[in-house]
Amino acid sequence: MKIIVSDFDNTFYTAEYEKNVQLIKSFIEKGNKFIIATGRPIYLLKPDIEDYNLDCSYIVCNDGGVIFDSKGKKIFEENIDKEVAKEVYELLSKDDNFEEVFIDTALNFSKDINDTFNAILALPKDKKIAQKQIDELMKKYPSIQGYISHRWLNILNKKSSKGNAIKMLMNMNNWSYDDVITIGDNYNDISMLENFNSFILKGDKNIEDKAKYVVNNFKEMLEIIDEGN
C-alpha cells in the first residue's frame, strides 16, 4: 500500500483537476490511500472535493493546524495561544495595510475574539509591507509563525506544519516512511518534502532541491510511482 499526501492548490487542483481526480480514484482502487494537505481552511476546501466525490483518507488543513478524518470529523488541532492570538488579531485589525482580518476557528471564519484561534488570516494591500509586519510579529511572539500565500497573510501556531501532521498520521496508522509519498509546489510544503519520498512541481528553483523528484504535473508523479512498483 502507498499513501500519497498532496498539496491542493496549484499541485492537485490545477487546470487538469478533473483528470487528476480520475487518476487518484484509480490509485485508490488499487488499495492505496490519498490525503490532502493544504493551507486552505476546510470550509473553503469542501466544495471543490465534495462536488467530485474525492475520497480522502484524511484532510490536513491550515498547513497542519487541523486534521479531519475521511468523514470530516476533526481529530486533531494545534491552536494559537489565546492571549497571543487576541493581541495579534487586534494589531492587524487596526492596521491600514489590511483590508480584512479573520479568525479561522478550524471550522469557519469568525470575528469574535472569544472563538478558538486555529489561524489568523489577513488580506494585505501591500505584500512587501505585510512581509515586514509578519517578520516583526514573529520576533515579538515566538510561539507563532506566518507567511504570505497567493493572497493572504497566514498566521499559525509555530508547531503547526504539514510535515508534523503527516508524522502524526503515520504514528496513528503504523505507516512506514517507505510507503508515504508527498507532492507540493511552494514554501509551506517544505516540511513534507524534506522528510519523505517527495515530488515537487517544476517552478520555483529556490525550493526544487527540497524534493527527491521534480515533475511537470501530478500525472508525471504517478507514472514514476508506477515505474517503481
Protein model, in words:
The protein has 229 residues and is of the alpha/beta class. The protein has two domains: 144 residues, HAD superfamily/HAD-like (Rossmann fold, 3-Layer(aba) Sandwich), CATH 3.40.50.1000; 76 residues, Gyrase A, domain 2, CATH 3.30.1360. The protein has seven helices and 13 strands. Strands 5-4-3-2-1-11-12-13 form an eight-stranded mixed beta sheet, with helices on both faces. A hairpin with a 4-residue loop joins strand 6 and strand 7. The longest helix has 14 residues. The chain starts with a strand and ends with a helix. The model has no long low-confidence stretch (mean pLDDT 95).
Structural descriptors:
single chain, 229 residues, alpha/beta, Rossmann fold, Gyrase A, domain 2, eight-stranded mixed beta sheet
